[in-house]
Amino acid sequence: MQAQHPSGSAAKATTAPRHLVATATSIVGEALVSYQVQKTQAARIRLESVADMACRLGELTAADAALITDLLAKPRATRRPSLTLI
Q1: CA distance 60 to 67
Q2: What does the pLDDT look like over 11-69, one tens digit per residue?
Q3: How distant, in Å, are the alpha carbons of 9, 18, 19, 58, 66 from that of 15?
Q4: Using CA atoms, how far apart are residues 1 and 8, in angstroms rounded to an integer?
């Protein structure tokens, strides 16, 4: 008796493995904190891209997506230097 294996042309599953989904969620969290602390354009782009990926995987709730959208809609505040030069 031979085991049957799906052929290379068969349809593949489209859901992400659970460990990758957990990683996607932690990456979104890291990007969110990074953007809130750094407020740089690079951090903003990273947050947008990883949030988009998490949405595509179905890992962001509507509330999570709304929070990120609201955060990104606010203008970036310029940070004051913490030290004053004399």
Answers
A1: 10
A2: 555 665 666 556 777 889 999 999 999 989 999 999 999 999 888 888 888 899 899 99
A3: 18, 9, 12, 9, 23
A4: 21
Cα–Cα distances in Å, from 10 out to 3, 15, 17?
A: 16, 15, 19
**Token couple for 35:** 């953007």
How far apart, in whole angstroms, are the C-alpha atoms of residue 9 and residue 13? 12
Between CA 74 and CA 20 the distance in angstroms is 30
Chain position carrying tokens 């988009």: 52
CA distance 51 to 38: 17
